[in-house]
From TrEMBL:
Pfam families found in the cross-reference section: MPAB_Lcp_cat
Name listed for the protein in its UniProt record: ER-bound oxygenase mpaB/mpaB'/Rubber oxygenase catalytic domain-containing protein
Signal peptide span: none
InterPro entries: MPAB/Lcp_cat_dom (IPR018713)
Any one GO molecular-function label of the UniProt entry: oxidoreductase activity
ER-bound oxygenase mpaB/mpaB'/Rubber oxygenase catalytic domain residues: 44-265
Domain of life: Bacteria
Length: 298
C-alpha cells in the first residue's frame, strides 16, 4: 500500500472522489465510461444474491467489515428490505446508469463506508474504501453475472467487450481502471490466486449460513422457506466455495435446483427485455426519482 492510499484510508472522512495520483484515468473519465449494459444484467440474478454475498464475504477483511459494521441503517438483519434495495440499486447504477447517477450514488455510499473500518479489537484490518477490497467485491459481482448468463441462457459467449464492461462494477467506487485485470485470462489468474488464500472462520461461516437460510427475513419466513433459500445459496455457489463453507446439496436438492432453474430459464429466454431487466430498470428509475426529489439514496 502506498503512503498516498494509506493517508486516504486513514482520513476521518475520506474523499469519495479519490483516485491515486498514478491512476491512468481521471474520475471524470471513469464516470464517462460506458455503463455495463454490455453485461445485459438479468434481473433473475437476484436469486443468486446470497451465493454472491458468501463469495464476497469469504475474504476475511470484507467478511468482518460487514459483520462488525456499525452502520445500523445498512444492517441486513435490522433493515433487510432497505439493504436489499441499496445493494441492488448499486448494481443498477453501475450497470445501467449515467455518469451523473454514478457520482451521486458513490457520494451516498461513501457516507456509509466512512464508518466501516476496523478497530483495535477487530480480528483483521479492513476499510470499506480500500480499493483492493472493492476490487474483490467487483470481481465477485462480475463472476456472478457470468454464471447467471450461463445458467439462464443470456449471453452465450464471454467476449472481451462483455468482460471489459464489468470494470464499472469497481470503478464506480474507488477502484482505478487499471486495477481491473487486463483481460479474461488475467481475471482468472487474479480470481484463482485470491480464492486459494481464502479462509472462512467459524464466526463468518455462521453469519453466512444465517444469510443462506434467509434468517434476516424473520423467524416465520426462515422456518417456512429457509430450506428453499438455502438450496439456492448453495446451488449457485461454486464448488471451491462450497468446500470452504463445508456445505453441500443432497441428491434431491441438486435435482430440485436443476429443475427449478430449467423452468426459470425457459421463462426468461422468452421474456421481453423490460421483464428480463427487472428489477434493475425499476431500481434505476427509483434512484433517479430520489435524486430529483432530494430523498436519501441509501
Amino acid at each position: 500500500m502506498t503512503p498516498e492510499i494509506a493517508d486516504f484510508l486513514a482520513a476521518e472522512k475520506p474523499d469519495t472522489e479519490f483516485l491515486p495520483s498514478t491512476a491512468r484515468m481521471s474520475r471524470a473519465e471513469l464516470d464517462a465510461l460506458p455503463s455495463a449494459q454490455d453485461l445485459d444484467p438479468l434481473g433473475i440474478g437476484v436469486i443468486a444474491g446470497a451465493a454472491n454475498v458468501i463469495m464476497q464475504l469469504s475474504l476475511p477483511a470484507v467478511g468482518y467489515g460487514v459483520y462488525e459494521s456499525r452502520v445500523d441503517s445498512g444492517n441486513l438483519f435490522k433493515h433487510p428490505l432497505k439493504r436489499g434495495r441499496t445493494t441492488l440499486s448499486y448494481l443498477a447504477v453501475a450497470g445501467l446508469g449515467s455518469a451523473k447517477d454514478r457520482k451521486a450514488y458513490r457520494k451516498a455510499i461513501g457516507k456509509a463506508h466512512a464508518q466501516v473500518r476496523s478497530t483495535a479489537d477487530s480480528p483483521v484490518k479492513y476499510n470499506a474504501f480500500d480499493p483492493k477490497l472493492q476490487l474483490w467485491v467487483a470481481a465477485c459481482l462480475y463472476r456472478g453475472t457470468e454464471d447467471v448468463h450461463r445458467i439462464f441462457g443470456g449471453v452465450t459467449e464471454v467476449t472481451d467487450e462483455f468482460y471489459q464492461a464489468g470494470a464499472v462494477l469497481g470503478t464506480t467506487l474507488q477502484v482505478p481502471r487499471e486495477a481491473w485485470p487486463a483481460d479474461r485470462e488475467a481475471f482468472e489468474e487474479y480470481w484463482n490466486s485470491t480464492v486459494e488464500t481464502l479462509e472462512i472462520d467459524p464466526v463468518i461461516r455462521g453469519y453466512l449460513l444465517q444469510i443462506a437460510r434467509a434468517e434476516f427475513l424473520g423467524p416465520v419466513v426462515a422456518k417456512l422457506l429457509g430450506w428453499y433459500f438455502e438450496i439456492l445459496a448453495i446451488g449457485f455457489l461454486p464448488d471451491n466455495f462450497r468446500r470452504k463453507m463445508d456445505v453441500r446439496l443432497s441428491p434431491w436438492q441438486e435435482l430440485f435446483f436443476a429443475k427449478h432453474n430449467a423452468v426459470l430459464r425457459a421463462i426468461i429466454t422468452r421474456a421481453p427485455k423490460p421483464v428480463r431487466s427487472f428489477p434493475f430498470n425499476v431500481l434505476l428509475a427509483d434512484v433517479r426519482w430520489r435524486m430529483r426529489t432530494g430523498r436519501p439514496l441509501v
